[in-house]
From TrEMBL, chain A:
Its main location: membrane. The chain crosses the membrane at residues 12-32, 103-123, 144-164, 200-220, 259-284, 304-330. InterPro entries: BPD_transp_1_N (IPR045621), MetI-like (IPR000515), MetI-like_sf (IPR035906). It comes from the Bacteria. This is ABC transporter permease. Belongs to the binding-protein-dependent transport system permease family. It is found in: Cell membrane. Residues 97-323 form the ABC transmembrane type-1 domain.
From TrEMBL, chain B:
It comes from Phytohabitans maris. SUPFAM superfamilies: MetI-like. Belongs to the binding-protein-dependent transport system permease family. This is ABC transporter permease. Residues 78-268 form the ABC transmembrane type-1 domain. The chain crosses the membrane at residues 12-35, 82-106, 127-150, 170-188, 209-227, 247-271. PANTHER family: D,D-DIPEPTIDE TRANSPORT SYSTEM PERMEASE PROTEIN DDPC-RELATED, OLIGOPEPTIDE TRANSPORT SYSTEM PERMEASE PROTEIN APPC. Keywords: Cell membrane, Membrane, Transmembrane, Transmembrane helix, Transport. Pfam families: BPD_transp_1. It is found in: Cell membrane. Gene3D superfamilies: MetI-like (1.10.3720.10). It is a multi-pass membrane protein.
Amino acid sequence: MRLLRFVARRLLQVVPVLLGVVVVTFVLVRVLPGDPIRTILGPNATDADAAAARARFGLDKPMWQQFLDYLKGLATGDFGTSIQSGTSVGSELALRVGPTLELVVLSVSLALLIAVVLGVWSARRADRFGDHSVRILALVGNSMPEFWLGLVLILVGYSALGWFPAPSGRVDPDTNLTPLTGADLLDAILTGNGPAFTSALSHLALPVATLAIVVVAPLLRSVRASALEVLRSEAYLAATTHGLRPRTLLRGYLLRPTLVRLPALAALVFGTAIGSTVLIEYVYSWQGFGQWALRGLLYRDYPVVQASVLLIALGYVIVFLIADVVHAVLDPRVRI
Amino acid sequence: MAEVRVEAGARSFSRVLILTGAAILVVVALAALAAPLLSSWGPEEIDANATLAGPGGAHLLGTDTNGMDVWSRLLYAARLDLGVAVSAVALAVVVGTALGLLAGYLGGWLDDVLMRIVDIFQAFPTFILALAVAALLGNGTVNLVITIAAVNAPAYARLVRAEVRSIRELPFVDASITSGASTVGVLWRHVLPNSLTPVRVIAPLNCGWAMLTLAGLSFLGLGVTVPGAEWGAMISLGSPDVVAGRWWTSVPPGLALLVCVLGFSLLGEGLQERADARRRS
């Protein structure tokens, strides 16, 4: 019950922030240079054509009127119509979010697992050879251009070895997968489509590996630092001097206090993952949210830019909220 | 006893990190300066008889789709990548520090307004923000420096502000105020030098990140565009070749980028480690 009240209160606090994001994006895309109408009409269009197109998208009205229309639409869940494609932004979004979410969630989960195992292992060997090697690896990961890593993995995994499919699409079209959520792996499970599942998995392998390697590096450093802090704390020293079994010591006294910090770290890494996804989707022709948002930005497609910025901000807020809830569940000292 | 050994190990490891990082950066900088001596082709010179020629022969690392020499472009690109990254971070440090200093020392409404603006900036993933700013400002080296600096400056403002707020409460600041020093004098002589400690550790790491951002923007066509020699743009041009197994157009520039960013990371990590060890002892 208290948890529900906490979540409700946090969501209410978020409303003004999101409203601020909506206003700022709305004004900025219109005030700053660039014209979405000119980009769809091409060089030969007359001024009359441009005016007609402007009227069709309601861009001839005063800005406050446009903003009120936009807000009215948002209240009913209508994100407007894309200027580039002429279809509803909401339905385009529904197609695009699933694939990206699948990529990000799988990669971040994989990265969390690797980071915890290696980070704790490394901290227990602080400043010995094993620790130094892990830290150098983390630094290399931190310095990795993700788009280049993607190309190298394609070069090795597809061109040289032929183990993975070509970087064009997310699932083999011959498997006749019925799209439900847009996340192909999930769709394959839900529809019980075995061949599609294998195909989706093999298409996912390289992009997930790319994103996981980029995300694991900062996580690994943080896990190592917090495990090290626990190991150097008086509480842990006291537990060691009591002569507890190594297993109890590791599970109860080292892992638990280290894991408590993990949700906040995972939330922070979410931002990095979203940024990298734009590049990684581009490399693997993933046709996800990142590519969609990038195209919207390049063509100044106002409704698309507005919707993607709002969605990223909303995603941030939700991820931090989940992190706080998980933290409260893991850490008995936190009262919410 | 064991604790002492660990501390000594940490200290020598941090020295290894700093020296390795610095050595890498010196080598890259020298290679960038000596580019005309190390290659016989110009960075934008086209060899029409050899498009997509493999490594070896007249072209050490082969040529790209335009028939430009990969090795010489690689060397000349170091100038642009290092130059843009370092000047963008320098600009971000100067602007961010100035804002953080004012906000932290003066407080009041100025502090509130500046920090709310910083909040808005930091509510978005930095690369997404860089994409948006770059798309709005357009191409050009100066615009790229401004873009990368604008995305980084808020973090410095927040960092310096926090330092300034704790330094402002220290007795020696009060002492110099009561002995009649002007506000500018106190800020410049006492507050600024002491608040830069964390900046010195973050800035090298940030240079590496700035380089990755520049290359990422160029890769998406929002930064330096071909024929300009920049590592991200070279990787972008070479990316279609990868499916056909032609590695030399995209792997070498990425490797150069990785090594150079790693140089900055090693330097930053070493400085961080040394600062931590000093704080603990």
